[in-house]
Fold these 2 entries.
Entry 1:
Amino acid sequence: MTTDAWDDPLLLTPGPLTTSDTTKAAMLHDWGSRDTRFIEMTARVRRRLLELVSATDDHVCVPIQGSGTFAIEATLGTLIPDDGKLLVLVNGAYGRRMAKICDYHNRPYEVIETPEDVPCDPDTLEQALNQDPDVTHVAVVHCETTSGILNPLDGVADVVSRQGRALIVDAMSSFGAIEIDARKLPFDAVIASSNKCLEGVPGIGFAVVRRSALERCEGNAPSLSLDLYEQWLGLESNGQWRFTPPTQVLAALDQALVELRDEGGVSARGARYTSNAMTLMAGMREIGFVSALNEEDQAPIILTFLTPADPKFDFNQFYDLLRERGFLIYPGKLTEADTFRVGCIGQVWEDDVLAVLDEMRAALVTMGVTSCAPVPA
Ligand SMILES: *Cc1c(COP(=O)(O)O)cnc(C)c1O
């Protein structure tokens, strides 16, 4: 169990997540945004984020104030020029959100949609790109947190690169836990945020961008504050953020990145999350819950379960009973099926997973639920 001095519930959600006490404590200071200490902290965090994807001098890391969506909106707005066209691979809410951003930006786009429990398909993408030479950029969500499904990033990147287009990856819920290697994976941008697998607090999004691509992006962005090019220029010129930075959030991320390194880096963190996910899946199956995804498509980030058909099962009551016992789970987000989700990420360890499984069994007894089988499809 985490020894949480604040006695907060454990967040078994897609983020914000339970952070370590030391990461929280790192925020108990004030920093001048234009002071050397803060400038150094910014440089250190940007460098460490690049290291996490093995990026060299060919890439730059541009942080931006706000949640993950702010970074996605800034990246799409900055990288896709007026005469560009985006193709979005959609199998959940976050893919749909990128299409919606294009609506706001008045950028032309196409969508290839697969059902929410089906990974996107590189072959279908290749056919679409063959037929549409106007597409300049392709966007894919690495782990679609809507369901927790893992999309075939390598296969998508192969096709996009072979077709001479640029790839933009929403790696929000995978960055820091599922390996992405900038030396092997051709991409123009990989986007993530401080508060998911990096186990920082919310308030900073960032993109790792191919330098040669970003250099061509002056004047593209339809927004003043969400202009990744100008943000980068500012950081490069004097090391400072263009507008007031979330100083405490950066300090927490700085500490969280030290803790990620101490844990053993991306592979060790991924291994802990995988072990959490496997224990959780096995335990919930044993209770009788049914996963919404095929096992082979599941990322070790968040699990989605079909709501039991037993009329005595009430998600809100289940949620409240677990909440009283110190665990927060998450409602479902699938459009087709009635589901709920349980996260595997953050400062969550084997003992925590075993404890929440015990509390789930107790909650089901309290509710009088005898079967967790879902409504037959
Ligand atoms: C969390 C998340 C986002 C960003 O959501 P915010 O609420 O803006 O932080 C985007 N894409 C994916 C896949 C996510 O998991």
Entry 2:
Amino acid sequence: MSIVTAIQELKDTLPSKTILVAVSKTKPNEDIMQAYESGHRDFGENKVQDITVKYDTLPKDIKWHFIGHLQSNKVKYIAPFVHLIHGVDSFKLLKEINKRAGNNNRVINCLLQLAIADEESKFGFSSEEVLEHISNGSFAALSNINICGMMGMATNTDNSGKIRSEFHHLKETFHAVSKKLQNDDFSILSMGMTSDYKIAVEEGSNMVRIGSLIFGSRE
Ligand SMILES: *Cc1c(COP(=O)(O)O)cnc(C)c1O
């Protein structure tokens, strides 16, 4: 199936409010341009080096989503242009994003990553930590970041019941945070990739990050 057809079929099946992030990591600019020319603008990358090169060499109206694990010392490279950082997994990282956003006279959109899976548990906040940061005002003090939702990755397993319950936990936390945070922009629930996006959408996702289903499998 062509890249353009795959995107069109996804858009036809996803609920209309669901944003599709086409995960183009490891794929060449030619593949991205096929999607771009069909009207697609949201692309996801997980390496700072790659997203920076692609930003430099591709049309400037692309919305670049950083979806990988972000190291604090590399925030400065993506701060000038990144559209949304999905995997914010510590307060230290959030503070660094705030600082670099300020240096660029920007407010950077961020999603808080919640640790919901077994094997990914080393990255991400717990729901208690997120709620604590809201209560003590530490998020509110960062004026150059906009916390506009949450993100998570389910365990890589065939057990769909387990995946569903992990996404369900993320959605419950999303609602709890939404009530406490008082930010009208807090609206994005980023969950679901090629193998589990259908379950994620059933559990309330409104942003899916899909790579191999669109661009084919990676090396
Ligand atoms: C690679 C990646 C995806 C997309 O994975 P596919 O299985 O190719 O759809 C989604 N989210 C994150 C965080 C990724 O690193």
